[in-house]
Amino acid sequence: MAIESVGGSIASKIAELLVEPAIRQFRYMFCFYNFVQEFDEQMMNLALAFYRLQDAVDVAKRNAEEIEIDVNKWLEDAKNEIEGVNRLQNEKREIGSCFTWCPNWMRQFKLSNALAKKTETLRKLEENSRKFPKVSHKAPLQEIKFLPSKEFMLSKSSEEAFEQIMKALKDDNVNMIGLYGMGGVGKTTLVNEVGRRAKELQLFDEVLMATLSQNPNVIDIQDRKADRLGLRFDKMTEEGRADLLWQRLKTEKKILNILDDVWKDIDFQEIGIPFGDDHRGCKILLTTRHEDMCSYIKCKEKVFLGVFSEEEA
């Protein structure tokens, strides 16, 4: 009884091994158009998956994000597969055009086999496009080259101003600090040191700096900030650039924007700097020659930087 059972099992297995390949070979010969239809449908599915993922990648790049390595690899593989089926496409058209009048059975058999294998490759590739947990990640910001501390010489006035600014940066109720003093007293040098120390103490995730001067160029300011962020504008309008910069800066939880040499009121929205209720984690540190400017821009904290005393000079 046991021998008969084993024998039956072996016979069943042999039949399975023989019958399935035979059926497959039969289909290759006589079901050519089924293979063509399956191939065309899978090609369409892969193309749709490619364009869908490519659109997501384009959006991520516009937001200055870095694309995941496996996503780039998939796009490259998919593009190669899509471009590489031209031979099969041409051959199936040739066979289809003369199939009714002069069927070449051996050629049709080989092409059906090739289409079946290629369809399976395309199917697996299309399925893999849905397995990515994310398309991109935020690119690391470029570091600002702040002055080494040994190049920063403290005077009594600058030491007091420095301590006052650092205290204000740690105060959650202060979102804008104005450093004022006559030209040449070292305001730029001081805020450089503040930026360096703020990064060193990890008070902010990022520190950005831009110089405004008497006739600020909004596009130039946007470009300098975008360079630090790795952001690309791609021929956008000034308003479009501001919106993109605005959205990118909002992804940073705590950020210090240093604006040097301010001479007139600042339209933060025009530049693209989220501030106040729009971004509670954003603080502004600006320098100007005039105390009135600090009041006009509504700085919560005003800090004076005087000249060196005769002893210090």
Automatic annotation (TrEMBL):
Query: Species name for this entry?
Result: Populus trichocarpa (Western balsam poplar)
Q: Does the keyword Repeat apply?
A: no
Per the UniProt entry, what are the Gene Ontology biological process annotations, in alphabetical order? defense response
Signal sequence, renumbered to the chain: none
Question: Where are the coiled-coil regions?
Answer: 57-95
Annotated keywords: Coiled coil, Plant defense
Residue span(s) of domain NB-ARC: 159-312
**Example of a GO MF term:** ADP binding
Q: What high-level taxonomic lineage is stated for the organism?
A: Eukaryota, Viridiplantae, Streptophyta, Embryophyta, Tracheophyta
UniProt protein name: NB-ARC domain-containing protein
What InterPro entries does the entry give?
Answer: NB-ARC (IPR002182), P-loop_NTPase (IPR027417), Plant_NBS-LRR (IPR050905)
